[in-house]
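From the shared-data thread, chain only:
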Amino acid sequence: MNMKMDFEKKLTIPMEAKKMYPIPESCLSIVEDRIDQLKAIFRGEDDRLVLIIGPCSADREDSVMEYITRLREVQEKVKDKIFIVPRIYTNKPRTTGFGYKGMLHQPDPNKKPDMFKGIVAIRSLHLRALTETGFTCADEMLYPENHRYLDDILCYIAVGARSVENQQHRLVSSGVGIPVGMKNPTGGDLTVMMNAITAAHGKHTFLYRGWQVHSEGNPYAHAILRGYMNKHTESLPNYHYEDLVHLLKLYSEGEYPYPACVIDTNHANSNKNPFEQIRITKEVMNCRRYNPEIRKLVKGFMVESYLEDGSQPIDGGCYGKSITDPCLGWEKSERLILELADLA
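Structure, as tokens:
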């Protein structure tokens, strides 16, 4: 064999992980109800805003749970206007392949990778969010084969800018049964994103985890606009009024049962300045108020937020501060949620 990889150990399969850490019977209806509510929003039958909010990466269980517990209290205040989906992002894409890759790889960011412990850690964290706060959460589908470890507990998935053109991500998205957001690629070509949405809407037969599988198609696959980079690697936004009108046009050129968009307020849209997220949400809300078609199209926002403002090195030692992209701190985040509810 010419393989240049060492096969270190066989990992537990998803079915075994679910048996070790099952969803309590009392919580099964919560999972289904939240998925149903989210689908109703994307169908246009519920006019609440979707707010996918939380840390750039879920780096430690205690601070993430404190954040989500606080979020639960705010959700009760705005429940008639906003449907909150906490971000528990347990896989972190790395452009060059180096750096912290998320809780799945390193349940302790200061220790070497251990993916069995990572599987346990990510399932345990999502379960704690469900059982202690009643939240089902969002995660990024960085690796399509890993989705099965959490597929019974998530209510939302995002496919990232570097993954959206990948065939496996598109086909798996066609069979997951929950809303999937397809981000525009880093180069900004929206036709790539629209092709991904079209693929996810279709029925497919493909190879997955060693099986020939068939998917029925996912009508809840939709666009996420996250900004892009030009040829000079400068960040450029794509959340302005003209961008949203253009996306409406792209949707009108195909057959999409539920045209929808979520605005990612960080990344290239904010040039990774988390404090710009506040202004961006308000500009988009003005666009929704001005144009009824944009109001129907834009279902909500994705916001990177944590207990503390900004970011730090992995060994920074500040509790609740991001070790990946800079985030909006709690006080500003809470104020943003309440202001969004007033504008909705």
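The longest helix spans residues 25-43.
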